[in-house]
């Protein structure tokens, strides 16, 4: 293990949505880091500009499914935050690819830690690995990957070292650069500023700000170092003070400047639309990737109430949210405000004229 003031953090998926929040929080809150190494298939070399006098930010391009790439990226690291995965509930990615990234990629990370002698590994799992909707390819593979991570805890390595692992299960992650919010905006613009709402006002889905997810990763890594017998081998739900609301209600609170309209749609109609979309996707799959946001699986996700508590993380490594709801909302709103309002206005005007 490096000197506690000279640690190298490897973040897989480091150039993605959560990876960028991990980078920011590590730079702001982790005084022991000397290097933050971002490993990803698609890299953004501009992230190296975040380097400071004390912390080097490096970017490594590679494929999580290629062991040699993973091992090379992990060489010299002290802590691994494994956040690389494919999140796909729209069937945009073949099942074999989802499995390869989420499961084989995790196997590669564990193997690299053991062979190199990296003692601390934190995995980004998902609340959906335990339900209530666990039949999607993404969540099946995430559940298998989480099991691999937790079973790897206490693996003996050369030199008398031991691998310590844990997994975090965030609720629906939101925040700056989240593609799902951007997709919601784009889809609503294309629909003339209208979005369809289900008559399920009591549906409540847990949400958590990406900055707080990143903060919990940092605290979990510290917990593995300071209390490995308590934190090692454990899974922790990751939540903050964000309100439990329906998917549409939560997103719409950030879209007020665009004057979007919620149109109530009977649940039976939405179910028929979801079945129709799945049928069209299946028929067109050989020649065209038809991947609408609404399908039977996403309808089940947004119509099932599910919330969690982070009490266990508070007890084991003193987690409390770094950002309160007001700041989470303000940061997200500032980003949403950069969306082109002219597009939304033009779409609504066009809809009225048609």
UniProtKB/TrEMBL annotation:
Listed GO MF terms: oxidoreductase activity, acting on the CH-OH group of donors, NAD or NADP as acceptor
InterPro entries: 3Beta_OHSteriod_DH/Estase, NAD(P)-bd_dom_sf, NAD(P)_dehydrat-like
Residue ranges of domain 3-beta hydroxysteroid dehydrogenase/isomerase in the record: 10-264
Keywords of the record: Oxidoreductase
Tree of life domain: Eukaryota
Keyword Cell membrane attributed: no
Biological process according to GO: steroid biosynthetic process
Keyword Oxidoreductase: yes
Family per record: Belongs to the 3-beta-HSD family.
Designated name of the protein: 3-beta hydroxysteroid dehydrogenase/isomerase domain-containing protein
Organism: Muraenolepis orangiensis
């Amino acid at each position: 293990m490096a000197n506690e003031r000279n640690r190298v953090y490897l973040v897989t998926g480091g150039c993605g949505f959560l990876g960028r929040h991990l980078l920011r929080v590590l730079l702001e809150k982790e005084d022991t880091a000397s290097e933050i190494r971002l490993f990803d298939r698609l890299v953004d070399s501009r992230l190296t500009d975040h380097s400071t006098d004390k912390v080097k930010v490096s970017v490594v391009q590679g494929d999580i499914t290629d062991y040699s790439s993973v091992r090379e990226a992990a060489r010299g690291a002290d802590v691994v935050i494994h956040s690389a995965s494919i999140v796909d509930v729209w069937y945009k990615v073949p099942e074999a690819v989802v499995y390869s990234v989420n499961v084989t990629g995790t196997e590669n990370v564990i193997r690299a830690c053991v062979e190199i002698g990296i003692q601390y590994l934190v995995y980004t799992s998902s609340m959906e690995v335990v339900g209530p909707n666990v039949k999607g390819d993404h969540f099946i593979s995430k559940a298998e990957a989480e099991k691999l991570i937790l079973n790897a805890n206490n693996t003996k390595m050369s030199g008398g070292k031991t691998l310590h692992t844990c997994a975090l299960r965030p609720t629906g992650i939101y925040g700056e650069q989240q593609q799902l919010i951007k997709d919601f905006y784009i889809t609503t613009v294309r629909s003339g500023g209208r979005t369809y709402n289900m008559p399920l006002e009591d549906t409540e889905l847990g949400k958590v700000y990406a900055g707080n997810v990143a903060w919990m990763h940092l605290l979990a890594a510290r917990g593995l170092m300071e209390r490995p017998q308590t934190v090692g081998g454990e899974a922790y739900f990751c939540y903050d003070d964000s309100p439990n609301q329906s998917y549409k209600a939560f997103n719409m609170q950030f879209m007020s400047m665009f004057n979007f309209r919620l149109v109530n749609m009977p649940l039976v109609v939405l179910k028929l639309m979801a079945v129709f979309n799945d049928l069209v996707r299946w028929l067109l799959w050989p020649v065209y990737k038809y991947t609408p946001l609404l399908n039977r699986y996403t309808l089940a996700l947004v119509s099932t109430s599910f919330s969690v508590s982070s009490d266990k993380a508070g007890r084991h490594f003193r987690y409390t949210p770094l950002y309160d709801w007001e700041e989470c909302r303000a940061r997200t709103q500032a980003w949403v405000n950069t969306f082109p309002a002219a597009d939304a206005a033009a779409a609504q005007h066009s809809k009225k004229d048609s």
